[in-house]
């Protein structure tokens, strides 16, 4: 009997966190016949304060997937960081994988050298520019001065979500691949189960409540369009601040975290999509999964004109940077159902052509098999 090839996954987020690429990809690879072992990050003392270690979605285990849970009584510290790093190497020794996948640059610094020594093909997936995305000064410094260099030197292949990161690594490594963000086909079906309640006149934003987004601009815009209700769902450092600020406005509502299963109806009922990114270095190389979420519900999207979104969506997205531009697009879409429908269909077509997991899973399979 042919033995399934084994892939070890190192992720910065817990298996039952929001369904990012880190968890969805091993699910798809497992269905393709690979044995996937997902190494959960350490839950240290007081881990409940860390959003990346929380459980937001109960996942049913399936064939060919094994989850390895780890914890320590230590608090988050340099000592616990070293403990987790050493244990990563032990996981390789114990499971003896055919391939390793990681999207966690902090945990990669040591384990990638260990894999190189053991001659195990290692694929690092660059999901963000960690020079800006890592909230800690130390984390950002380690990415630029150590981890990125180790990845270039020791990784067998590098996959990149954004064009900007692909352009950077492609000049420094022989095996670099552009593999954009994706969603599951099932999400499209679930969104289509709901008949949009456009008479509710609401816009729903679901995401991480961080300073990646210009919520001040968003509040200012919707404050001048009282006929339209803005509902913001999510968790993050800005939650309490946004809750306080929303009390001053009748048409802006902050709901906090929401179960993933409830997002499909919210996406369907949203009159259109909004992505109010701050136009800074961090967001220039980011393709928000939120764009694909709105597209899955056949929605036209208004977005800040960041480099990555413009390269991905081109003219399908309506771009706005100033308050006046946002208001213009919002009022236009509110009064023009034909335009919402037409661009919404174009959005769905773009999604299904390039951003489904059935496509990018095959891209990763080709990478692994080439490294065999």
Characterize this entry briefly.
This protein is α/β, with parallel strands linked by helices and 372 residues long. The protein has helices at 21-31, 78-95, 105-117, 130-133, 137-154, 163-170, 185-192, 215-223, 239-246, 263-269, 281-284, 289-296, 307-313, 323-335, 337-354, 357-371, and strands at 6-10, 35-39, 43-45, 65-68, 71-75, 99-102, 122-126, 157-160, 176-178, 202-206, 229-233, 252-256, 273-275, 301-303, 318-319.
What does this structure look like?
The protein has helices at residues 21-31, 78-95, 105-117, 130-133, 137-154, 163-170, 185-192, 215-223, 239-246, 263-269, 281-284, 289-296, 307-313, 323-335, 337-354, 357-371, and strands at 6-10, 35-39, 43-45, 65-68, 71-75, 99-102, 122-126, 157-160, 176-178, 202-206, 229-233, 252-256, 273-275, 301-303, 318-319. The protein has 372 residues and is an alpha/beta fold. The strands form four sheets. Strands 4-2-1-6-7-8-9 form a seven-stranded parallel beta sheet, sandwiched between helices.
């Amino acid at each position: 009997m042919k033995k399934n090839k084994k892939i070890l996954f190192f992720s910065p987020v817990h298996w039952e966190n929001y369904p990012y690429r880190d968890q969805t990809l091993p699910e798809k690879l497992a269905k393709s016949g690979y044995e996937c072992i997902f190494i959960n990050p350490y839950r240290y003392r007081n881990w409940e304060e860390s959003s990346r270690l929380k459980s937001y979605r109960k996942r049913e285990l399936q064939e060919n997937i094994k989850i390895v849970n780890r914890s320590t009584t230590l608090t988050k510290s340099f000592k616990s960081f070293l403990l987790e790093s050493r244990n990563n190497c032990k996981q390789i020794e114990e499971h003896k994988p055919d391939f390793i996948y990681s999207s966690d640059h902090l945990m990669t610094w040591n384990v990638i050298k260990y894999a190189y020594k053991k001659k195990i093909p290692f694929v690092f997936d660059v999901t963000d520019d960690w020079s800006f995305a890592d909230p800690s000064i130390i984390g950002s410094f380690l990415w630029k001065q150590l981890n990125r260099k180790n990845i270039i030197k020791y990784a067998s292949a590098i996959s990149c979500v954004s064009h900007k990161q692909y352009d950077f690594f492609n000049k420094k490594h022989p095996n670099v691949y552009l593999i954009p963000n994706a969603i599951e086909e099932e999400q499209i079906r679930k969104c289509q189960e709901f008949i949009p309640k456009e008479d509710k006149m609401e816009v729903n934003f679901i995401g991480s409540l961080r300073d990646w987004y210009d919520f001040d601009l968003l509040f200012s815009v919707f404050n001048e369009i009282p006929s339209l209700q803005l509902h913001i769902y999510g968790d993050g450092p800005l939650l309490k601040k946004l809750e306080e600020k929303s009390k001053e406005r009748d048409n802006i509502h902050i709901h906090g975290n929401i179960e993933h299963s409830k997002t499909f109806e919210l996406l369907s009922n949203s009159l259109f999509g909004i992505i109010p990114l701050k136009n800074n270095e961090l967001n220039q190389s980011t393709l928000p999964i939120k764009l694909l979420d709105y597209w899955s519900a056949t929605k036209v999207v208004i977005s800040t004109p960041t480099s990555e979104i413009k390269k991905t969506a081109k003219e399908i997205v309506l771009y706005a940077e100033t308050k006046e531009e946002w208001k213009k697009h919002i009022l236009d879409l509110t009064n023009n159902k034909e335009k919402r429908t037409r661009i919404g269909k174009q959005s769905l077509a773009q999604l299904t052509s390039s951003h489904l997991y059935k496509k990018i899973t095959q891209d990763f399979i080709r990478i692994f098999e080439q490294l065999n």
